Amino acid sequence: MDTIIGLGEAGCNIATAFQKYDQYKVYKIDVGLEGIKETGYGDFPQDGIYSMPKQTSPEAYEKNCPDMKYFFKGMSGEILFVIGGSGSISGASLKILQQLQHCDINVLYIQPDFELLPEAKRVHERSTYYILQEYARSAKFKRMFLISNNMIENHLENVPLVGYYDKINEMIVSTFHMINVYNHLKPVTDTFYHPYETARISTVGIFNIEDGANKEFFSLDKVREMRYYYAINKNDLGTDGSLFKKIKQQIRDAAVNGVKTSYGIFSTDYEQNYGYAVGFSSSIQRRENEKKMFS
Question: What span, in angstroms and rounded, lies between the C-alpha atoms of 286 and 295?
Fold first, then answer.
């Protein structure tokens, strides 16, 4: 996924963080941006920026979503569409995604601190959260990745107020970037296979190679598959006689409750070894207070 599209403030901030990597073409859509105007034509200061007309409600953003075919002209292949569900502009998300049906769509959904949202935003966020999952399950999207800001905050432990979201976004972006990189590299060895066609709800995470402890970015229910990426210093690959045995045992330990596991080992020049994980589920992810309603 080398094309990133950010919608709204949260989506655009994450899209901006991807710009430090040369391989991504980044598009940003939000109110008040200095870029292409709602007509979609004429000169504009920056490519890849669309200034959406301001509306008064999520429903108005959906109803008045402009034709953006000119903005997306020439776009093809796999894209990552980044959205924060509580922003009013996310009301336009389905209308925008309909204009990208010719692409392979992956949605990256950033879940805010739901309990702290005002009631009106809770209603809107809940609707966006579940509708997009249903679209993913029905194969309208290739995949939907769920990310919880609260869980990442817990992994980072103490995060100062100034730069709070920058730290969280950096962790999200660097993890997605490295997984994307390894998906395009030949591993030293791997047991990867194509994920279940129906397992389209996903999350990512990092894990400790020493003890296998996994730090997921979202608590995924009913996991069907886990895929592990081992980024190992090339010298360790040639000298650590216990490494491969440790990796295989970690994969066996992760294969519980019917979860299928696979791994890839990649040679790096980094001094430190890193681990990344992707989880896959076929189930709609219910909020804790709603699970009994659907059980």
Answer: 10
Can you tell me which residue has the tokens 């103490």?
Answer: 158
In Å, the largest CA–CA distance within the chain is 62
Its domain, for residue 37, covers 3-141
Instruction: Output the CA–CA distances (angstroms, integers) from residue 174 to 15, 30, 95, 178, in the order listed.
Output: 12, 23, 29, 6
155-205, pLDDT tens digit by residue?
Answer: 887 777 777 888 999 999 999 999 999 999 999 999 998 888 899 999 999
Question: Is 179 a domain residue?
Answer: no
Residue 206 to residues 64, 96, 185, 228, Cα–Cα distance (Å): 40, 31, 19, 9
Q: What CATH number should be reported for the domain holding residue 122?
A: 3.40.50.1440
Dump pLDDT digits (tens) for 98-110. Answer: 999 999 999 999 9
Q: Which tens digits make up the pLDDT trace of 47-69?
A: 689 999 999 999 999 999 999 98
Of 217, 221, 214, residue with least CA distance to 250: 214
> Is the pLDDT confidence value at 251 over 60?
yes
> By the 8 A CB rule, do 204 and 176 touch?
yes
- Domain CATH for 270: 3.30.1330.20
In the predicted model, is pLDDT for residue 27 greater than 60? yes
Is the residue at 137 inside a domain? yes
DSSP-based three-state secondary structure for 71: coil
Question: What dihedral do alpha carbons 209, 211, 212, 214 form, nearest 10°?
Answer: -100
Structure tokens that stand for 265 in this block: 């080992």
Reference 68, options 88, 32, 34, 93; nearest CA is: 93
